[in-house]
Amino acid sequence: MLPQAAFSFISFLSFFSPQRQVLVVLYQEWFKISSQKDSQADTVRLYLRQVGLTTPTLLPYVVNLTDGNGNMALHYSVSHSNFPVVKLLLDTGLCETDNVNKAGYTPVMLAALTAAESSDDLEVAQQLLKLGDVNACSRQAGQTALMLAVSHGRVAMVKLLLSCGTDVNAQDREGSTALMCASEHGHTNIVHMLLETGCCDTSLIDKVFCYTAKLNTVYWS
Q1: Are 70 and 100 in contact (CB under 8 A)?
Q2: pTM of the full predicted structure?
Q3: Where does the record place its ANK repeats (predicted)?
């Protein structure tokens, strides 16, 4: 059930201009309701519905609020694998899916790390991948969502990313590709999956060891 404090806050939004104190309440209530591991989609839906009914101009602001770490509710719900909340947020059509947090990751990159297995979860994950930039690079290492999924052995996410047109030959700051990452981590099934796309450029060389993807994958052929 939606906390009474949230209803109280929303009820007076339409009567007062957004002052600092009001925004502080909004900030606190929104993250409390939407961004916990056990956040309930029904509660989030009620909150957003009430905001939309009373002060619709605030809805995009609420959905894309960021905390001190640069995370939106979408970052948190993806990280928690709370796909019902992820879907609810995406279905608003207001999410800034390519928003980068202070750690340098977008919701799409975080989704690549999740262990989405059920058909419902994978469907929501695919919805996110189609809305976001699957080829965006993390700020620190320059890794794409595909590289992250490959490195962590997330087979289902690798399949989804490939189906969404991710660049299999993208290179991170060290020059590594997804294929190099797969071979370095010993994920033979992913190595074969990448090679079967027929798009991998095995002549690419990394900047650290000057290895090509072909040298890295020869043992897995």
Answers
A1: yes
A2: 0.85
A3: 69-93, 141-173, 174-198
- Is the model's pLDDT at 172 over the cut of 90? yes
Residue 136 is encoded by which pair of tokens? Answer: 């965006």
The CB-based long-range contact list for 165-171 (8 Å cut-off, 24+ gap) reads: 165/134, 166/134, 166/135, 167/135, 168/194, 168/197, 168/199, 168/200, 169/199, 169/200, 169/201, 169/204, 170/135, 170/137, 170/144, 170/146, 171/142, 171/204, 171/206
Tokens representing residue 204 in the block: 């690419």
CATH 1.20.1250.20 fits 4-167, yes or no: no
For 201, left (φ over 0), alpha (ψ -120 to 50), or beta? Answer: beta
Percentage of the chain surpassing pLDDT 90? 75
Confidence of residue 25 (pLDDT cuts 50, 70, 90): confident
pLDDT digit string, tens, across residues 121-134 = 999 999 999 999 99
Residue 142 identity = G
Distances (CA, A) of 195 to 99, 133, 171, 191: 31, 23, 16, 6
Strand, coil or helix: what is 212? strand
The residues spanned by each domain of the chain are: 4-167
| Res. 68: pLDDT tops 80 | yes
Kindly tell me the burial class for residue 46, based on how many C-beta atoms sit within 10 Å of its own C-beta (0-12, 13-18, 19 or more): middle
Instruction: State both tokens at 191.
Output: 């190595």
